[in-house]
Amino acid sequence: MSSVTATTTTPGPAGHAPDRTRPRLDWRLRFAALSLIWGFSFLLIKVGTQGYAPFQVTLGRLAFGTAVLAVAMAVRRERLPRGVRTWGHLAIAGFLLNALPFSLFAFAELTIPSTLAGICNATSPLWGMALSLVALSEDRPTRVRVAGLGLGFLGVLTVLGAWQGFQGLDARGTALALLASLSYPVGWIYVRRTLAGSSHSHLSLTGGQLLLATVQLAVVTPLFTSLPNTFAVGPLLAVATLGTLGTGLAVLLQYGLVAEVGPTTGQMVTYFVPVIAAAAGIVLLGETLNWSTPVGAAIVLAGAALTQMKPKRRP
Questions:
Q1: Does residue 19 surpass a pLDDT of 80?
Q2: 3-state DSSP percent of the chain in helix, strand and coil, to 5
Q3: 102 pLDDT exceeds 80?
Q4: Rounded to an integer, what distance in angstroms lies between the CA atom of residue 51 and that of residue 53?
Q5: Residue 39: its pLDDT value, please?
Q6: Cβ atoms of residues 92 and 190 within 8 Å
Q7: What's the pLDDT band for 87 if we cut at 50, 70, 90?
Q8: Residues whose CB falls within 8 Å of the CB of residue 141, separated by 6 or more in sequence, listed in order
Q9: ∠ CA 95-198-202 to the nearest 5 degrees?
Q10: Is 183 within 8 Å of 96 (Cβ atoms)?
Q11: Hey, which bits of the chain come out as E strands?
Q12: CA dist., res. 76 & res. 72, Å (int)
């Protein structure tokens, strides 16, 4: 669920040009598959937390996702990156792009619906735009993009029902989900500043990043959780699916799309994710929505779209 934002990313997981191989499947089908996978991820998180602690859900997700990338690397005969500095940067990237946001979403969904978590995830482009204006000198503000930023955060207030004093809203869970969404662009800006131009392949770097994120959760999880008395099958299958598809396969699809159609088109997956997440939560989990939630979500997505508009080049 790490959003690809045009303001904070360039092709490849570390800001470098990814390996270009001829795709076997049309990019539109892969785009649709990625939208579905990430959209259903919030439902899978919710189901996973019904049987396991949030840290356990995140650890399982990362372990399964890393296993998928390990298989992909073995098939392509790729090795993990080398260099102490590279591994240090990947450790920070793994924390900001995987370990932290995945854990925050899992904790958030203990108290908020998966539909709201999916909508909070759609704020990543807004955070990315705001941060890039400060951290990336090449991203110059335009009136349209600034207007999109303001519109997007107006949408957030609409989703949260600000005019009603945020009644019925779990402030802690919502704040955790928004913080998770903020973590993604922070991570991408860090990656762009530290690993841009790396000679390692995108698959190698991503595999190392997920591996380190898994190690981080493997250290943290035993400190704050205990083994469950029973291993619930349904939640376990949800975690396995979340890791295999929502993390491992999704990463491969994501970077393949960015390599083929560019970050601007690739990041549009973000706009479909909350719609799918809401539909899945309502139909399969019986969650309900107030009118302000879909209206606010539409405003958020409109604002996010405006923030991605590039200024026209003068002839």
A1: no
A2: 70, 0, 30
A3: yes
A4: 7
A5: 92
A6: yes
A7: very high
A8: 133
A9: 65
A10: yes
A11: none
A12: 6
pTM metric for this prediction: 0.85
Torsion, Cα 52 91 206 29, to 10 degrees, reads 50
Average pLDDT (60-66) is: 97
Task: Enumerate long-range contacts of 129-132, CB under 8 Å, 24 or more apart.
Answer: 129/5, 129/7, 129/307, 129/308, 131/8, 131/185, 131/186, 131/189, 132/7, 132/8, 132/185, 132/189
In Å, how far are 49, 184, 185, 245, 286 from 253, measured between CA atoms? 26, 18, 19, 10, 30
CA–CA separation, 302 and 298 (whole Å): 6
pLDDT at 163: 59
> What token pair was written down for 92?
């920070």
Each residue of 127-170: pLDDT tens digit? 887 887 776 655 566 778 778 878 888 888 787 776 565 566 78
DSSP state of 21: -
